[in-house]
Write a structure and sequence with these properties.
Blueprint: E1 2-8, E2 11-17, H1 19-27, H2 37-56, H3 64-78, E3 91-95, E4 104-107
Parallel strand pairs: 1-3
Antiparallel strand pairs: 1-2, 3-4
Helix pairs in contact: 2-3
């Protein structure tokens, strides 16, 4: 299992990627520019739209589009040939203000999110 965690303006969501879904993603990977910044932004925007729904309602559930976006983000960083873009293992997306002005990506093992956030 792989995971992308999104922290946005105090709301946290985990996008757990089942192994079979990740394998499906790899088979269809030709649809995307593997290390394209535009596709990374599109994938992040899908997760950000979910985060906006999650802030508005406590019962927001993610579906296939969010898992596909998480697959792209996880794969983008874990296989990136540019050393400064390479992040190994699970990924955390941090948007402290929830406005997408400053978005950071990090390895989950390097970030500790306080309980209750």
């Amino acid at each position: 299992m792989r995971k992308v965690t999104y922290f946005s303006a105090g709301t946290v969501a985990d996008f757990t990627i089942p192994d079979d879904r990740f394998q499906e993603f790899l088979k269809s990977e030709g649809q995307f520019e593997r290390y394209g910044e535009d596709d990374l932004t599109k994938a992040r925007d899908v997760l950000d739209a979910f985060m906006a729904r999650a802030r508005a309602t406590a019962d927001a559930h993610h579906g296939g589009a969010e898992i596909l976006a998480a697959c792209f983000i996880w794969n983008f960083f874990n296989t990136n040939p540019e050393e400064e873009r390479l992040i190994t293992d699970d990924i955390v997306i941090i948007d402290l203000d929830g406005d997408l002005n400053t978005v950071e990506y990090a390895a989950a093992r390097d970030i500790q999110i306080e309980p209750g956030h």
